[in-house]
Amino acid sequence: MSPARTGSAPVVTGVGVIAPNGLGVGEFWPAVRDGHLALAPIGRLEPNPYPVTVAGEVTGFEPAGWVEPRITVQTDRFTHFALAAADLALRDAALDPAAVEPFEFGVMTAGYSGGVEFGQREIERLWRHGPEHVGPYQSIAWFYAACSGQVSIGNGLRGPSGVLVADEAGGLDIFAAAGGELRRGVRAMLVGGAEAPFCPYAMCCQLGLGLLSTSGDPATAYQPFTKRAGGFAPAEGGAMLVVENAGAAHRRGATVQAVVAGHGATYTGRRRFDRSAQGLLRAAAGALAEAGLTPDDVDAVFLDAMADPLADAAEAEALRLLLGERASRVPVTAPKAGYGRSYSAAAVLDVATAVLALEHGLVPPTPGVRECRFDLDLVIGAARPVDLRTVLVLSRGVYGGNSALVLRHPESPISGGM
Amino acid sequence: MTRRVAVTGLGVVAPGGIGTKAFWELITSGRTATRPITLFDPDGFRSRIAAECDFDPVHAGLTTAEITRMDRYVQFASVAADEAWRQAQVGVTDPWRLGVCMGSAVGGTTLLEQDYVATSQRGQQWVVDAGAASPFLHCALSPATLAAEVADRVGACGPVRTVSSGCTAGLDAVGHGARLIEDGQADVVVAGASESPISPITVACFDAIRATSARNDDPAHAARPFDRDRDGFVLGEGAAVLVLEELDHARRRGAEVLAQVAGFATRSNAHHMTGLTTEGVEMAEAARRALDHARVAPDEIGYVNAHGSGTRQNDRHETAAFHRLLGERAHQVPVSSIKSMIGHSLGAIGSIELAACALALVHGVVPPTANLETPDPECDLDYVPHTARERRLDVVLSVGSGFGGFQSAVVLTRPERS
């Protein structure tokens, strides 16, 4: 192990969430804990000629109050989510960026679909009216780096920046990338991601994945790990977390919510969900090793939950291989079944949920699911009280990435660390 | 034991020639590859010039299935990766220890635009017709497919990432890839970047902010970094891939080490999405951090590969940054911009420039800045006008600026003796 890998693991000190089931952790956590179902017909696609009709939409969110009007017109909805989530995370962390040395506070985001609604409006102007009708903000609103850039500028963050587009799994990988900066001495990072993929053209692109649920019934559209699993409900939303160098957080007297203890990532080929069992297993084993832990330490697992029969079977197999005979006893859950899968933001929201679960000592349920077709202890119905010390978050990308992140309760002894 | 990062393979697809040899010949000759746009009819656009690749995918060795499936930028990356992988001759390696880290700023916009035109009936329908989309459109929504395609070519099962931080993505992908090795996540990483942005929407969006050159009557002399008569950058396209390898891993198998990736850092200006500060503080800071990481003093820099886009604000920003970084030695260090010859290929250019830097170290030759007839009086450094220069190099710095206010720096060094 190289010197770069030693030292205290980064810590989470703030969480900001903009999700279909709530704005801010004050709304989000009770909704997740109680298994609220926030899936519904897609209001932004009206009329909706597409076979996918049920999704997790962030209703009741207006940029006003979150985003300066001057910036609102220069940015896509996904960036509005990121800016709002960043604001919430900073407030939750009680960390004023101006109080951090210049160049020591940065931002990294993961993305999948970018500012595609803004992009569709501008590309329509181009093809309908001509090149001179494309506006000046197209160049900064559509691209994947829009969120990192606007969050940096909006909050005066002059530290390291970064943008990963590694589909869903990128939402976990971004914590490893930010951890790399924190280990090298940077004091704090805002880390997260946001998606808003519900303009017609974005939906047209997603349909080709062949993984989205075409059920019209919000109560049964997204049923991972069941015999009815027939794809996932897509979602929009975002989350940002303040992750700090442990020493810096301690020195400023911050409340530590969780420790980001380990990460692992593998690749097993596009749509090769049969191979993702090995991929997830190795990613999880790597993350635990980095944390200085073993599979026996895992108290709960937040699942990728693709709701594709092969993908679900591979994930269950990965857990069986990782946890051995404990696989049927360790509580596992997929809270996103209640609000949909928002691509890279889904993994970030799972991290946020895991942090909240550690804080409350509760494993939230998998909403809408009544049975599990695998020999797993899938938490359904009510949240389950568990003395959580170590949780494992799993995520997969549709293009073959498998990632795992280990989070620990702040009062657990730290033996390793990323 | 610190893990260090060697470069053991290079592959390039650039305007003016396919392959590393043709690329190096072009950029050391001072010839330019900028010309009128042929990839689409640019009539009606403000800037109608670009640096295009004369790329024949069949001749470059791609199969019909690959050509059908892959967008142009993925084809570039595949061909560049094949060349780099052949040169590196890594042979048998643990696939779980083999990673990929590829960058792109605008990803699949060419296919996105093509299919948009088809599904919207040339912009007439907001609610696009999904039935008219190509089966590969979903790959265009997210450049995550770029890294996946490269991973499949080399058989990687380790961390596979796409970096999409805008115009610094090419530097950031190599920097991030190097960190995967330093931090012990992989022993070999195929890293690089690719872009094919020469399509109506991207040309129009730079037209809208007058970032690109309108010297349409003289395309060969349109990219004029540091010249008084410059009027913006010339859009380019291309790809470069570097095989990165843990130094001892490379030595054990007797591989030829071309260079070391010794340092990497990013900082942000938190100032403006497209604007730069006049003082160059953030770029100097990024460079200083990268040098610290490399344990190299600014005095040891033998060549600076500039961002050198050929916009007035960039040239002055960068000149200020180099003064700040190099102090009294600023006038003695050659600084050049190969964008004067091959244009600005957005997310790809950083990797192409790192390929140029590695070749500069190997050959002891500094590539020139073409078209520098009358230096801007505000830009007073040694920009190596017109003609390449022989010079023994031990430490080379490459910097980049991108929308979002991002500044990145990578330090390459001559291989250490074992």
From TrEMBL, chain A:
InterPro entries: Beta-ketoacyl_synthase (IPR000794), Ketoacyl_synth_C (IPR014031), Ketoacyl_synth_N (IPR014030), PKS_Beta-ketoAc_synthase_dom (IPR020841), Thiolase-like (IPR016039). SMART domains: PKS_KS. GO terms for molecular function: 3-oxoacyl-[acyl-carrier-protein] synthase activity. GO terms for biological process: fatty acid biosynthetic process. Gene3D superfamilies: 3.40.47.10. Pfam families: ketoacyl-synt, Ketoacyl-synt_C. SUPFAM superfamilies: Thiolase-like (SSF53901). It comes from the Bacteria. Residues 7-409 form the Ketosynthase family 3 (KS3) domain. Keywords: Acyltransferase, Transferase. PANTHER family: POLYKETIDE BETA-KETOACYL SYNTHASE 2-RELATED (PTHR11712:SF322), POLYKETIDE SYNTHASE-RELATED (PTHR11712). Belongs to the thiolase-like superfamily. Beta-ketoacyl-ACP synthases family. This is Minimal PKS chain-length factor (CLF/KS beta).
Automatic annotation (TrEMBL), chain B:
CDD domains: KAS_I_II (cd00834). Residues 2-414 form the Ketosynthase family 3 (KS3) domain. Keywords: Acyltransferase, Transferase. It holds the Pfam family ketoacyl-synt. GO terms for molecular function: 3-oxoacyl-[acyl-carrier-protein] synthase activity. It comes from the Bacteria. GO terms for cellular component: cytosol. GO terms for biological process: fatty acid elongation. Belongs to the thiolase-like superfamily. Beta-ketoacyl-ACP synthases family. This is Minimal PKS ketosynthase (KS/KS alpha). It comes from Lentzea xinjiangensis. The lineage of its organism: Bacteria, Bacillati, Actinomycetota, Actinomycetes, Pseudonocardiales.
